[in-house]
Amino acid sequence: MKEDAARLDEVVILGYGSQHRADVTAAVSQIDGKELQKMPMSNISQGLAGRLPGLISVQNSGQPGADQASMTIRGAKTGILYIVDGVQRSINDIDPNDVESVSLLKDGAAVAVYGLEAAGGVMIVTTKKGKQGTMNLTYKGSYGAAFNTSYPEFLDGPGYAYWYNKALELDGQEPIFTDKHVQMMREGTNGWGNTNWIDEIFGTGTIQQHSVTSTGGSDRINYFASLGYMNQTGNVKNFDYDRYNLRTNIEAKIAKSLTFTLGVAGQIGDQKSPGFSAGGTSGTGVSAADAPWLSIAEQAAYAHPYLPKTYDGLPTASQNSYGNTINPIAATELSGYSKSQTVAVQTNAALQWDLPWVKGLSLKVMGAYDRSSTTSKILSTPYFVMLASTPNSTSSDITYSKASDPRNNANVTTGEKTNNLTEGFSQWRRITSQASISYKNTFAEKHKVDLLALIETRDYKTNKFSASGKDIPFPQLPELSYATTPSDNPISGSSDASRKVGLVFRGQYNYADKYLFEFSGRYDGSYKFIGNISGRRWGFFPSVSLGWRMSEENFFAPLRKAVDNFKLRASFGSLGDDSGSAAYAFLSTFSVSTAPSVVLGGVGQNGIMTSLVANELLTWERNYSYNVGFDLAMWSGKLGVEFDAFYNYIFDILGSNTGKPASMGGYYPTYINNNAQDVKGIDVKLTHRNHIGKDFQYGVTVNMTWAKDRWLRYQDSPNTPDYAKRTGKSRYMSMGFVADGLFQSEEEIDNSPWISGSRPRVGDIKYRDLNGDGAITYDQDRAYLGRGQRPQFNGSVNLNASWKGLEFDILFVGAAICDVSLTGTYYNYNEDNTLFTRPFKAGANSPRYLVEQAWTPENPNAEYPRLSLNPPNTNNSYASSFWYRDGKYLRLKSVHLGYTLPKNWTNNLRIQKVKVYIEGNNLCTWSGLPEGVDPEWPGVTNGYYPQQRTVVGGLEVSF
């Protein structure tokens, strides 16, 4: 029973307070900070995947300094509110060694005290505090290697030549690559080569972390202090990140009933990258100046493998269909740099007075001042390349000519290079204050009361500016004062400010540790809505929750030998969300036209026009949150179950005010509260803890979350067919044609509908005529496809064991019930082919799976459409169900193996603990997607920096 008693006495961190686990009636999951010490990570968001039921985590990038996971709770429409030590803060730069616990607040009863900002759930991170006792000093350090978790294999030079010729053949054209060309590729002669650009770009990176912590205290003062350093050297050259952390938490009893606490934290983050981005961002076009679109990862996929790395002393380059010269190595090493440094300081101080003449009555004030500033310097340095021209009808060999890099800032004729320097500065500061009164007492041994009233204010301000200049004579001295030519937009800047205030209350009643009741809420306001109409700016967000510890009833006595604890829970909460609303949308706004709208005195004059029509009735989205669940512990803690079923009804969602007749002239409110969604699902946590003999302990934890969302109301046009309406569909679903496989004969094409003006060929995708009009049209035959790209089911299995000084921990995570598209969503929110769905797209190389599994006369039962270089139609270019795949996957997320030296070895050296360990993350992935495609980031537009597989060794020493 000891393990179960410890579990019930566990302190669970809640909003503005804490409770014992036995008294919690809301849906709250919590893990100890030690769980984050079992895998290498650069930030704690990476370590939370699979550790908490209800938490859904997706990591899209492995770029140093930008590899945070995107997290949601229970499929929520909005993001998580992050609270660190009682204050709204980011969790991305916290040293994992500083974390005491992480709490996940999942239902309305748990988060109502945060009002308008909590509709997406709340995550509370509590950092370590001092403990009474002698000083403890601990060093922990690790060092290891990082490399791509997965990446598709692209064609080598000879393979490119073969499949390029094959595509030309199927297009009815003559091949251009000969056996002699292939031989020269293999030999690397006469301007030919065989370069694996992917391997040249993606190598092996490193990660190292070091932390020194000290803790201790007396009956008057306790302290915790830490220093941390983390370095990531990317597996792509010149992508690096360094982070420095400092934290101290002090608690002092300055009088018998007066307690003062102080927390100070600081972070410095230095990030460096080349002049081109890593990948994973969507540019706004395909121009040469659009650097995000020409990411290094994308250039590695575009680069032609039959070229050598250099020719005549300069980097070689191929050219894509948009006229951009491509060489990923040059883009990495010669394009310049982007450097930024962020310095953040977080402080909070609190004073609590426990009134001596009223037992259980306390007054508390807390103030927090957070400030962050970022300086950046971006130097764009042009360079020359040797542009290759492949054989064609007039040339039978490869030729080279000097050309500029993709940004076209190097003049081949004059040899001049126009560099560009941009420097920026941004900063923000947030002041948070809280004042509260609380009362906690027990009456007649059975009646426990816990009351809280609190007022919270926040004041936020930010500003930023940047300046640019061109033609710096000496790039080695990159200072704006040396710029000889102003940039097109030499100076820019902006600022913003906001304030919030909320009144919080909570009342808890516990009768005989059996019947539990809680009533809480917040009276909150938002500056985004009008203040002189009742119910628009200010709102009340209440919640109620009930608990019944059935195992404490007398009639339960016969079962107590097996059942340690059984508690039923139920809750309801009313929440709000103003994150999707623009500030001051209740006011009409105006803009100046970009072109003259009237001529006065023979001179064109710009006009002022309405850009947004006000809606004084706008308000926040509303969310009704329902939750029922139970907690079960059996056989002295050998089996534990936490089960929750939830339903969230979200309504008054902001949407465009469409569907009005033209006779209204467009003068009607731009936005209204007109849409609704719901989310339903379950959370389950199963635990098993046991021991064999005295020395061997083991445990199993299984977490499962199922969450399904749908639109209940959306501004669909009345004439829209059901399959094209958003109503009833998941918000993660996208539109496209419904595919019926591939055409296998000309007769099948003749007897099938197809897109007008684009007669398909055998091997092209066949689309379904959804409205039965005998034609495939973009307006009438597209439907919402699949089950949504965000998994409905997320789960994990954690196995751990220890024997004497040995310890082992392994974590598997997985997801299911989703359909992911291999096509990418571009800047205009339309899906289209990418480098990973169309061979040789826009002059690129091709993933090997696309050509080897493409339709050819020899391979009619193909996975992918007809192999083609210059298709005579756009039939295969549309988003369709053909590109959807079952998105389920299983990933070996982490493995930890450690050994702690026996105490009789270390005590003589006055060392408390010595532990050595090896650990890794993202070690293996199983999915049904094409080889090398990451299931967490399957549809990419402009290349991406893959998640990293990391293996490190470490040492921990305590004195």
Question: What do you see in this structure?
Answer:
The chain is mainly beta and 959 residues long. It has a 22-stranded antiparallel beta barrel. The protein has a five-stranded mixed β-sheet with strand order 3-8-9-6-7, with no helix packed on it. Strands 15, 16, 17, 20 and 21 form a five-stranded mixed β-sheet that branches. The two termini are 33 Å apart. It is globular and about 100 Å long. The relative contact order is 0.13.
Topology summary:
Blueprint: H1 2-9, E1 11-14, E2 17-20, E3 28-32, H2 44-47, E4 55-58, E5 70-73, E6 81-84, E7 87-88, E8 99-105, H3 108-111, E9 122-127, E10 133-148, H4 157-170, H5 179-187, H6 197-201, E11 205-217, E12 221-233, E13 240-255, E14 258-274, H7 296-302, E15 310-311, E16 314-319, E17 325-326, H8 328-333, E18 336-354, E19 361-380, E20 384-389, E21 399-404, E22 420-443, E23 447-470, E24 485-511, E25 515-525, E26 538-549, E27 563-577, E28 589-600, E29 603-612, E30 621-634, E31 639-656, E32 671-692, E33 696-713, E34 735-737, E35 739-742, H9 746-750, E36 765-767, E37 782-784, E38 793-803, E39 806-816, E40 819-821, E41 824-825, E42 831-832, H10 848-852, E43 854-855, E44 864-866, E45 884-886, E46 889-900, H11 903-906, E47 913-927, E48 948-958
Parallel strand pairs: 6-9, 16-20, 43-44
Antiparallel strand pairs: 1-2, 3-8, 4-5, 6-7, 8-9, 10-11, 10-48, 11-12, 12-13, 13-14, 14-18, 15-16, 16-17, 18-19, 19-22, 20-21, 22-23, 23-24, 24-25, 25-26, 26-27, 27-30, 28-29, 30-31, 31-32, 32-33, 33-38, 34-37, 35-36, 38-39, 39-46, 40-45, 41-42, 46-47, 47-48
